[in-house]
Amino acid sequence: MKKVAVISLGCPKNLVDTEHIVGLLKATGDVLFVDNLEDADIIIVNTCGFITPAKEESIDEILTAIEEKKRDPEKKVVVAGCLYQRYRDELKKELPEVDVFIGVDELERSVDKILDRQFQPEKPFLYRHILTPSHIAYLKIAEGCSNNCTYCAIPLIRGPYRSRPEEEIIEEARFLAEKGVKELYIIAQDTTAYGMDKKEKNGLLKLLKKLETVEGIEWIRLMYTYPSHITDELIDYIADSKKVLHYLDVPFQHVTDKVLLSMGRKYFRKYIDELIDKIRTRIPDVALRSTFIVGFPSETEEDFEKLVEFLKEKKLDWVGFFKYSSEEGTAAYNMGDLPEDVKDSRLNLLEEVQYSIFEENNRKFIGKEMRLIVDGPADDMEGYVEARGYRNAYEVDGIVYLKGNYPPGTFVDAKITALASNVDLIAEPIE
């Protein structure tokens, strides 16, 4: 029996890859998963290679695993995922201590590569082992990306966009529902491009209609929806859906035409304004999440000020900010880079502005009723559990502290009673 420790870095899409590796290894019956690297015979690091801070974190974790191997040479170190996919030759040369490398296109061979034995099932996705709380799961509907944004390394790492077969996705969703999953997160580099690589129109809409029929799944949450691929039909469908939440994650990345053009985004400011108005008109209670890159090479002080004005005007429900990272191999790499202190000061200002907007938005919910799903005990508030409403995606948005003691995965109708912070709420169950 081999003891295995797993470190999974990066985004939910990478976590799904880790879940596939873990599931395949578990299926052999010969492994025991442990939390501490010291206890492990095999240490697996599933890396991220997207931007510089993520790459640095990946290297740090690999070096920590190698240190463990130096203490006990019998240990095996496995490096998987995006960083290796992007820098295969360099990593093999620089890290001779690593025993096994697994690219993002080799996950199905995990058992073969890690345990030196043949195990390649026909439907490896049905062996997946969920690493999120058991009532939540990510469902990856495509691989790669073809949007070719000038700053993004994903096409270099994962190739062009490839939609998974619809039947396979539905089968995996049923498998997850049987495991107790109630909230499904639809993910890909661009979920709204689903089917476009096969010349299919409204592919995501057709997929959602079928996913709604999966028994046991109660909430379906759409993430990573590319702005110019959001159709009127999709908006209308979400508005009327029983299971697809009134929540949209739409990464705008910037708001001035000049910066959007140099980013290679396929829309301009006028489109953003019209899209937000359209979504909010058709889905009045919608929660909108977005992300923005600050300090892109072409971003002037004026561009930045327009971004600040946009945030104050639109009052988006949730926003994530990222400092621009210049990545070799991307088109933007040759555009130069802004000084780090400029990027830092702009990032700090944006976060400050948005924090007061979070509070303003959240205050509106005091006194309102909301259906919540329980995630688990609240360690920092005795007598409460951590829960979320339709407005809150797991791990990226605020939470709701719900009074009482409920098992994870329980749905509770509650009334919001107060703010716990700028981003978190407090609620009591409706008797």
Automatic annotation (TrEMBL):
It comes from the Bacteria. Binds 2 [4Fe-4S] clusters. One cluster is coordinated with 3 cysteines and an exchangeable S-adenosyl-L-methionine. It catalyses: L-aspartate(89)-[ribosomal protein uS12]-hydrogen + (sulfur carrier)-SH + AH2 + 2 S-adenosyl-L-methionine = 3-methylsulfanyl-L-aspartate(89)-[ribosomal protein uS12]-hydrogen + (sulfur carrier)-H + 5'-deoxyadenosine + L-methionine + A + S-adenosyl-L-homocysteine + 2 H(+). One of its GO terms (molecular function) is metal ion binding. Residues 131-360 form the Radical SAM core domain. [4Fe-4S] cluster 2 binds at C145, C149, C152. Its cofactor is [4Fe-4S] cluster. Its main location: cytoplasm. It is found in: Cytoplasm. Residues 2-119 form the MTTase N-terminal domain. GO terms for biological process: tRNA modification. CDD domains: Radical_SAM. It holds the Pfam family UPF0004. SMART domains: Elp3. PANTHER family: RIBOSOMAL PROTEIN S12 METHYLTHIOTRANSFERASE RIMO (PTHR43837), RIBOSOMAL PROTEIN US12 METHYLTHIOTRANSFERASE RIMO (PTHR43837:SF1). Belongs to the methylthiotransferase family. RimO subfamily. Catalyzes the methylthiolation of an aspartic acid residue of ribosomal protein uS12. This is Ribosomal protein uS12 methylthiotransferase RimO. The lineage of its organism: Bacteria, Pseudomonadati, Aquificota, Aquificia, Desulfurobacteriales. The gene is rimO.
